[in-house]
Write a structure and sequence with these properties.
Helix content is about 35%, strand content about 25%. It has helices at about 10-25, 45-50, 55-60, 65-70, 130-135, 140-160, 175-190, 220-235, 325-345, 375, 385-405, 405-420, and strands at about 1-5, 30-35, 40, 60-65, 75, 80-85, 90, 95, 100-105, 105-110, 115, 120, 165-170, 205-210, 235-240, 245-250, 250-255, 260, 265, 270, 290, 305, 310-315, 360-365, 365-370, 380-385. Helix 1 (about 10-25) runs parallel beside helix 11 (about 385-405) and helix 11 crosses helix 12 (about 405-420). The longest helix has 21 residues, at about 140-160. The termini are far apart. Pfam families: Pyr_redox_2. Belongs to the NADH dehydrogenase family.
Length: about 425
């Protein structure tokens, strides 16, 4: 029996392993294994809400082991450190508890078919001080760490009196930085109802720093303009064409020798695949560690290794690479599933063609802006307000349906609605 291993339980990886489990695991035609370094899945576009406490991972996250039991695959907790494509083996690092005791030793996992879906991490471009002084939002653990620091800072500002201000600096004007900027004001306003009557968005100063000429560089200029206008209205200082050259305890130094002071600093600029990927013998990688693939999403050297999601470098007809977005990962997962199924039947494989269905940026409860149907209408169908918000929420619901099925996804969505009524709207611990 063949063994199919998916490394990475993000949007694409989890959707793929669910389909493989139902098609091959349930019928005992293959062993399906998911490997992830975390026990819990959260849809990555929602990490900024975890970071502010608007979303509680304990209530809204998915436990891989429980999901595996219902969807006919196996789950292994582990951090991938090496791949040997010639021997068809993976190496997982040893796992220790908080006291340093080894829970699981270093392990080797064999595979017949491998899908690399390890996602991406923030790229600090070697900027001095960033690793030591900034928070990152690459995982729910990092987001929860920032949420604790943010809550402590809110408590400090509230205690110091009405003149105190909380200063936050976010480097990176992509979707994460933009959405986090708006969400911070929303959370500050909500704290009035939770024992901090003097707290509000007016006591928060957020500076969004982008090295390029405008925020949201990957999206149409009109969306960027609408988002910038809304952020400025909220009170965000949007600093464009501003390059950070150093981070220190208490702020950033910019290329023009100016300093930006901050109580909390978040780095959300640039993405790259994890560094270990570049060291795998036989994989061709880009300067951002992404793995180059053929049109079928197989690696250039090994037909039994597929790559999906942010770690995949798939070149399009115009020479550009498929952008690292959730919709890309979803589409790639669907194609790889079809190609694996075709390989079992000795049929020809399909080639991947990215379809841009548009982009949406959610500015918390204040606004949502974006364009729909991307390359089908030339990106000219712009939406904002309630319609855009409805579509944005629908994308998350489609993800729930993909990993749970219609019935359970409907129950989960109903439970989330009820939870908003009976539970605090903020995670306060």
């Amino acid at each position: 029996m063949k063994k199919i291993v998916v490394v990475g339980g993000g949007a694409g990886g989890l959707e793929l392993v669910t389909k493989l489990g139902h098609s091959f695991g349930k019928k005992h035609q293959a062993d399906i294994v998911l490997i992830d370094r975390s026990q819990t899945h959260i849809w990555k576009p929602l990490l900024h809400e975890v970071a502010t406490g608007s979303l509680d991972i304990n209530n809204d996250g998915l436990n891989y082991r429980a999901h595996a039991a219902k969807h006919h695959y196996q789950f292994q907790l582990g951090n991938l450190t090496a791949v040997d494509p010639e021997k068809r083996t993976l190496t997982l690092a040893s796992l220790s508890d908080d006291k340093g005791h080894i829970v699981l030793p270093e392990r080797t996992v064999n595979y017949d078919i491998l899908i690399m879906a390890v996602g991406s991490v923030s790229n600090d471009f070697g900027t001095p001080g960033v690793a030591d002084h900034c928070y990152f939002l690459d995982s729910h653990k990092q987001a929860e760490r920032f949420q604790q620091a943010l809550l402590n800072q809110f408590l400090r500002v509230h205690q110091e009196g009405s003149d105190a201000r909380l200063k936050l600096a976010i480097v990176g004007g992509g979707a994460t930085g933009v959405e986090l900027s708006a969400e911070l004001f929303h959370v500050a306003d909500m704290l009035k109802a939770y024992g901090m009557p003097e707290m509000s968005g007016k006591r928060v100063h957020v500076q969004l720093i982008e090295a390029g000429p405008r925020i949201l560089p990957a999206l149409p200029e009109r969306i960027a303009g609408l988002a910038t206008k809304e952020l400025v209205r909220l009170g965000v200082t949007v600093s464009q064409a501003t390059r950070v050259v150093r981070a220190y305890d208490g702020g950033f130094e910019t290329a023009d020798c100016g300093n930006i002071e901050a109580d909390l600093m978040i780095w959300a600029a640039g993405v790259k695949a994890p560094d270990f990927v570049a060291n795998i013998d036989g994989f061709e990688t880009t300067r951002n560690n992404q793995i180059l693939v053929k049109g079928t999403l197989q690696t250039t050297a090994f037909d039994n290794v597929y790559v999906i999601g942010d770690c995949c470098a798939c070149k399009q007809a115009d020479g550009s690479f498929v952008p690292p977005r959730a919709q890309s990962a979803h589409q790639m997962a669907s194609l790889v599933f079809e190609n694996i199924k075709a390989s079992f039947l000795s049929e020809g494989l399909k080639e991947y063609q990215y379809k841009d269905y548009g982009s949406l940026v959610n500015l918390s409860r204040y606004s949502t802006v974006g364009n729909l149907m991307g390359n089908m209408t030339g990106g000219s169908m712009f939406v904002e307000g309630r319609i855009a918000r409805f579509v944005y929420v629908s994308l998350y619901r489609l993800h729930l349906i993909a990993i749970h099925g219609w019935l359970k996804a409907t129950v989960i969505m109903a439970a989330q609605k009820i939870g908003k009524v009976v539970k605090p709207k903020l995670k306060l611990h």
